[in-house]
Amino acid sequence: MSDELRPPVAARAMVGTAPGQPRLDTAGVVRPLGTTPSVLPELAEAPQAERKWWRHPAFIVSIGLTVLALLGLAAWLIVAALTDDSVRVTGLEISDDGGNVHLTWSDPHGDVALYAVHGDGEVVDLTQWVHGDEAWIPAATALYESDTCFVVRPASTTDDVSLDAATLGSQRGQGACVADLGA
């Protein structure tokens, strides 16, 4: 090969020219082995912004649970008010108004049922005659006689109709008889 075809002589690297020298030795600059400063700058940790107290997860959860508890309480109170079975009929009075029977009682704030109990034990439901805290039963309807008694009790009571004072008391109702009109 001629000198023309041969590439120009570059500084030849010498590997391990001396014992314990595992590096490439060039004719140029020798760089020492080891760690060198990083090419990228060190990133400082970004300061954490403090959360506002109203954005803290514990606060959000507690507010949510409080709202749910208040909604549950409101629903319970509404259902309890609508399904109140503590209706008690008190102050039942019977009067004669031109041959018609007029029954009045203190307003129990609930639905009541009116029954006529005849002398032979027959029970007739007269709830359709109830208007608020009174009932008018015309004599022309022949729904009562001189031996008839009336029982007013909460409509939610499903037990048998009885004139017994203890039974009426346990059913939160009261009774009055037509025979009491003449007394």
Description:
With about 180 residues, the chain is an alpha+beta fold. It is about 15% helix and about 20% strand. The protein has helices at about 55-80, 165-170, and strands at about 15, 25, 95, 100-105, 110-115, 125, 130, 135, 150-155, 175. The strands form three sheets. It has a four-stranded antiparallel sheet, with no helix packed on it. A four-stranded antiparallel sheet has the order 6-5-9-10. The protein has a two-stranded antiparallel sheet with strand order 1-2. The protein is rod-shaped.
Please sum up the structure shown.
This protein is an alpha+beta fold. Helix content is 17%, strand content 21%.
- Order of helices and strands, N to C? EEHEEEEEEEHE
Main sheet: which strands, in order across?
Answer: 3-4-8-7
Question: Given the C-alpha coordinates, what overall shape results?
Answer: rod-shaped
In whole angstroms, the N-to-C terminal distance is: 154 Å
User: pLDDT under 50 segments (min length 5)?
Assistant: none
Sheet having the most strands? 4 strands, antiparallel
Radius of gyration: 51 Å
Strand content: 15-25%
**Helix fraction?**
10-25%
Q: What is the residue-averaged pLDDT?
A: 81
Secondary-structure class: alpha+beta
How many DSSP H or I helices? 2
**Would you count the extended β strands for me?**
10
